[in-house]
Write a structure and sequence with these properties.
Elements: E1 10-14, E2 17-24, E3 27-34, H1 44-56, E4 58-63, H2 80-94, E5 100-104, H3 106-118, E6 122-126, H4 132-137, H5 143-152, E7 154-157, E8 166-169, H6 170-176, E9 192-197, H7 205-214, E10 220-225, H8 235-248
Helix pairs in contact: 2-3
């Protein structure tokens, strides 16, 4: 999108933090975008959903977590608890009517964690990175990196999605352990649709299946895209995303 056409963000204060938000008024339970680790609310999938919401007259809310995008705060100073509190605060302020939560990667984990308090009417999860700090980071780290995280408090991880490395902090790992979900049944109390690429190097499709095994026997749909990567941002992927949201969102009058 041309920067000159970008709608300006509105700042919302949540627990003393100034979070950047974009709200499209509309009908029906609002659709709320929960982005990924170091992503932002103007990413391709969020923009595609905003265009859908404009066409359909649906309410759509998106925001940047603390330390992400246009929000205040330092990324390295935050943990899962902080970003979960951000999500719950934004929903309470801007989308209290049993929203549809659309979570991408880390946002999928945040959506599942938030479900107990938010009581969503549906979840759409894109490559959900449930428990990623433990299962996809700590468990995969060699001993030398684990030691650096614990002794130095941070390890700078090279990223294929940004020019600068991503700080993985001891606080992030330890706080993540307070929110692990895959060791017990998970019932978000609403329909769930998961979109997962089978060529995803960051959240392997087998990890998504671990989540499916923990979800209820009914009300869960999984779409596997054999050639799909982690981003799932190609034209066909965006069409699938919109279709999943349309399929789970209650119809408006």
């Amino acid at each position: 999108m041309d920067d000159t056409a970008r709608p300006p963000a509105t700042m919302l204060t949540v627990r003393g933090r100034r979070l950047a938000t974009l709200v499209r008024p509309g009908a029906g339970p609002p659709v709320v975008w929960l982005g990924g680790f170091r992503s932002d609310m103007r990413a391709t999938k969020a923009e595609a959903l905003d265009r859908w919401a404009a066409r359909q007259g649906r309410a759509f809310v998106r925001f940047d977590y603390t330390g992400h995008g246009e929000s205040d705060g330092a990324f390295a100073a935050c943990t899962i608890s902080d970003w979960l509190a951000d999500a719950e605060g934004v929903v309470a302020a801007l989308a209290p009517e049993r929203p549809i939560l659309v979570g991408s990667s880390m946002g999928g984990w945040i959506a599942l964690l938030a479900a107990a308090r938010v009581r969503p009417s549906g979840l759409v999860l894109i490559a959900p990175a449930t428990d990623f700090t433990e299962a996809l980071m700590w468990a995969q780290f060699p001993e030398a990196i684990r030691r650096q995280v614990m002794e130095d408090g941070v390890w700078q991880r090279e990223s294929q999605y940004a020019p600068e490395p991503t700080p993985v902090t001891r606080a992030l790992i330890e706080d993540g352990r307070r929110h692990l979900m895959l060791d017990r049944p998970i019932d978000p109390g609403c329909p769930v649709h998961i979109l997962q690429g089978m060529a995803d190097p960051d959240v392997p499709w087998g990890h998504a299946m671990r989540l499916v095994e923990r979800l209820p026997e009914t009300g869960v749909v999984v779409t596997l895209i054999k050639e799909g990567d982690h981003r799932l941002s190609g034209p066909a992927d965006l069409d699938r995303l919109v279709a999943a949201v349309e399929g789970i969102a209650p119809r408006t009058a």
